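CORE FACILITY INTAKE
Project code: CF-77B
Contact: R.S. (postdoc)
Sample description: multi-component assembly, two entities in total
Requested service: structural model of the whole complex
Turnaround: standard
Below are the sequence entries exactly as provided by the requester. Do not edit them.
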Amino acid sequence: MQPLDFSTVIQTLTQNAQNVWMPHFFPEVVVCVTIVLILLASICLKRTARTTFALALIGLLVALCGIGSQLNVVGSGVSANPGEYFGGVLIWDGFTVPVRGMLLLFAILALSLSGSTMKFGARDATDFYTLLLGSTLGLLVLAQSNNLLMAFVGFEMASIPGYALVGFQRHRLRSSEASLKYLLYGAAASGVMLYGISLLSGLTGTLSVSQLGSHVAAIGSQATGATASHAVIFSLLLIFVGFAFKLSLVPFHFWAPDAFEGASAEVAGFLSVGGKVATFSLLVRMSLALSGSMTGEAAKLVLPLGIGLGVVAMASVTFGNLAAYFQKNVKRLLAYSTIAHSGYMLMAVAALLVLRSPEGASSGIDVKQVTQQCIEGLVFYLFVYVFMNIGAFGLTALMRNHFGSEDLEGVKGFGRVFPIHGACLVVCVFSLVGLPPLGGFWGKFVVFYSLFMASKISTFMMVVLLVGGLNTVFSLFYYIGILKAVFLGEPREGSSSLVAASSENGLAMLIALPILLLGMFPGAATDFASEMARSLVR
Amino acid sequence: MDPLCYLSLLIFLPTLGAIILFGFPSKAVDAMRVFTAAITGVVFLMTLQLWLGGSFNPVLGTIQPVQEGVSVPWIASWNIHYRLGYDGLSLPLVVLTGFVSFLSAIASWSIQKLHKGYFILFLLLVTGMLGVFLALDFFLFYVFWEVMLLPMYFLIGVWGGPRREYAAIKFFLYTLVGSVLMLVAMLMLYFASGREFSLIGLAQQAAAGKFSSFEQTVAFILLFIGFAIKVPCVPVHTWLPDAHVEAPTPISMILAGVLLKMGGYGILRIAFPLCPLGAYYSSYALVAIGVVSIIYGAFAALAQTDFKRLVAYSSVSHMGYVTLGIGVWKLSEAHGIDFWLQGVSGAMFQMIAHGVSSTGMFFMVGVIYDRVHHRDLNQFGGLMGRMPLYSGLAAGIFFAGLGLPGLCGFIGEVAVVISTWNYDPLLAIIAASGVVLTAGYILWTMQRVYLGASYKGPHSEEIDHMPFTAREAFVGFTLLIAAIYLGVYPSVVFDVMDATLKGSLETLEKAVATVGK
């Protein structure tokens, strides 16, 4: 190995910056720079709440523009090189670019929401926005990691600011309690996941997600195959625990209601969506890797894995919906609803695994095409979910600001006093139920169609489909409970004189409108989602 | 005008009106009332134009204005089209929708609070209803079907009676269960047909035997449950008395006049053509459900003391004839499809007739409720002397509901019962005896409400303070004239739908005769 001299290092760095960072990871760089700038600004400037907000917003917008310039990688017109970077640690292709765009868009929404609804002092603002951006950075890394260790780093980068955000309201005991619970659960889940990762890498000799399938298959063909493949299953289960924690899937969901109730509604909205987008994109990549290149004995794993995910999905959907029914606090209710929605989304992944199992390949269906359809459904669902969930939590924040309550009892008549907020809430809530012509319906429809296709391979998927369908009906009960309180209840004395700020109205409509548009004209978004799927499944 | 534009305008004119209503000041109540009535009036005229304007050819029997329906791609990658059209099956119901919407908009003067929200939701509801009857793409149909739910939930839940929240959620849940089942069936057929959503295309594939008999049976059961909830058939009818009783008068009129017809329409437009084998296998069940609904609804109506609840149960009973008439499908040797055709035509006519008579009955209940604020049948009496014009109109309408010859209720019931005789004489006898029960509860009601010596209940003075207005008389007269016209000259409906029904039943018969047996 030749000795490195300083100028070569600099040269390599600049070259890297020019050829790799700037064209591919510009948004991440911008987010990092923004964080530094916010911290500097808090030292140099007075009255920083406004300034830091503006800085953070500009930073995220610039990062989003950076994504916008990369979007041409989706579909056929490939200008830059899709592929693995930094020694295969990160991957950059037609799937990760839009997913990161989604994350940044979501961060912008969460930021604007907290900027317009949260009241904090100057120093708090700096901390809050730094943590928010830091968590976003972690999510961006997680979404594009192609290496289990990198994924772990992403998980932690996203989670640790999250713990702090939950406990941000220092004066509220509930908030600190929630933060501690979240932290303990998170630490345990991370530990288990890390153990799984180390076990898997020890068995297979690789940490790379894209090579996982072929390495696992190689184990299956060895003499010690049987024992080793048991160990592989075990390690996959352990890794899945980490995923399930992040996605708040049953039975790793216990933190979610407490954390969401304790945190402010804005933070709850942020935590409930961002983690899902990033984690699902990694989960899809792992599922594809595991099911794609496995042959022989190891391939027999795929169908049970798919069915297992189906069971977890059913449990999450059913439990989330049933538990939500008894909630009196809107945030807690929405927390259970996020558990249910994770379940619906997981159904798409379960269908994907079932369809890609050897049984699926031998059944004569076009595996590539149906796989793409599953991913298309999941991506669309996530995209709508960004809007509808942050909308629901955002409107809860507005209830808190105007009515001083987040309980169903306390927000009675909110929709009558603020008709525009009310109308936007109707859009978000009915989209969460999954009624047409709103985006949430189309998301569910596409996921259910994936399940239906998978039911041709394994009848069990039909059960999952029916459970999902019935749960849509159950979920109406508690979602409508929100609307019932907000519209059918009489407003309190003196509340009729309250007026909403026009910026609030604007933001609420900005969030509700895409839901409506995605429901009425889903064509463009589904086409784009299927392009993304196509670049993932070649 | 381009037919696609015309039909779209017809469907979305009320939505446009709803958006304009947003701009009205909340105090301008009268302006909003008149505006809504005007919009629905234009919608009614536009539906009449479809029927009488020369663009509809009753002899053709196919979808009009073009065979496949006018369409533009909506979600191209899923082969979903925005496809509209009408034929003899949907046209009468479209006109009925326009008619009932217009009259209930006029009846909406009685709404007392939050007027702006009410009229906006009312107009959105009209859009949903027209869309259901005009959509020829399964997906589009489903979307409109669900679009109706949202306004309906709020219309019952906010403007309804004391138990409105319970009634609204019950209505919503029942319909949503049905929709989810329909969604599963839709996915099944979409997959089996090779990505087809067009109702015409699916029907053709079904007629060609593309779907296995297992698929057809399962899909039919799923679809039938979904539609049966809407009809409503016993035992999934329990949402109806609650929803009808709690809903404000104009909404009850729409519920009874239009929404229930969507069930029957769905069975005829979707469940039968898309799953002919499943339908054929289930025909006995359909007939039995129909007969049970007739008898059960009539007995339940006899037992009511709440005026509106009685009318609601009479709807269950009357809509039983629809299920019965649709179901009498027997691969008969000698007569071909004649008897079945008669049954289905009778069922269709019954839907139109019930749309007129039950709308009228609910309106009449609403008129007296607005005055005396109660609906207890045992506390009425003597209204004939106090409000002669109102009572006279009400008597006419109630006789139409009873099925008196010469009024609209008679034709459909007779046609259905006659065709049932060929299917199963025993069931025909039971169904016919339902007529006696109907006469029983309606005459008894009239005796308790309109006849008798004097009014015994509370708020007696209100009857004199609020005379029967010209607006109310207009609604009453219009409905009564429609009832008489349909009763005397039923061909006006039969002529429109004969060719269509004949064509579609022949197709079904052929599909089953070749594949099934």
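Facility notes:
- The first strand of chain A starts at residue 83 and ends at 85.
- The beta strands of chain A are 83-85, 90-92.
Invoice: internal transfer
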